[in-house]
Specification:
Structural class: alpha/beta
Strand order of the largest sheet: 1-2-3-5-4
Number of domains: 1
Radius of gyration: 16 Å
Low-confidence stretches: 1-19, 26-36
Order of helices and strands: HEEHEHEEHH
CATH architecture: 2-Layer Sandwich
Length: 153
């Protein structure tokens, strides 16, 4: 194996091994329904859970305010740093978004934690838009936007 390939392999190994992931599966229920539960959350790129805690709190609060719920067996992955978001985009071959994307077949939504530094209405739309994809079980941006608008009323 040429030295450049070894160096590349070691670099990738370090990148994947140094990226911390935290599961934030705290059982709780959103305020709008007594039966619905939050999806599972995984936080990536932070060295400690506390580093991403404000983002997680904002995500949970926003999900609780929507008229519909993410499925309980869904996972929301949050990239807590810009570097982690870029790494995830590259791994997923997703270059058309800077906010979020969903993998319906894997039951995952991946969110750029940086969106939570914007106005609440902005990240609320992102979360409801991705939920629109889940509810229609489709990749249609138009349908996802229509459903998002209804959920935000």
């Amino acid at each position: 194996m040429p030295a450049t390939r070894v160096l590349c392999f070691v670099s990738l190994l370090l990148l994947f091994c140094t990226s911390a992931a935290f599961s934030a599966d705290i059982p709780s229920k959103p305020s709008h329904s007594s039966e619905a539960t939050f999806p599972k959350f995984s936080l990536y790129g932070a060295k400690t859970l506390a580093e991403c805690a404000p983002i997680l709190a904002a995500a949970r609060s926003t999900l609780a305010s929507l008229r519909s719920s993410y499925p309980a067996d869904w996972t929301i992955d949050i990239a807590c740093t810009d570097m982690e978001w870029q790494r995830i985009l590259q791994m997923a071959d997703q270059h058309k978004t800077n906010t979020a994307f969903s993998r319906l077949e894997k039951r995952h939504t991946i969110i750029n934690g940086a969106i939570f530094r914007k106005f609440r209405s902005s990240y609320r739309r992102t979360l409801s838009h991705e939920l629109g994809h889940i509810l229609c079980n489709c990749a249609s941006e138009r349908v996802a936007e229509e459903l998002a608008a209804k959920m935000e009323q």
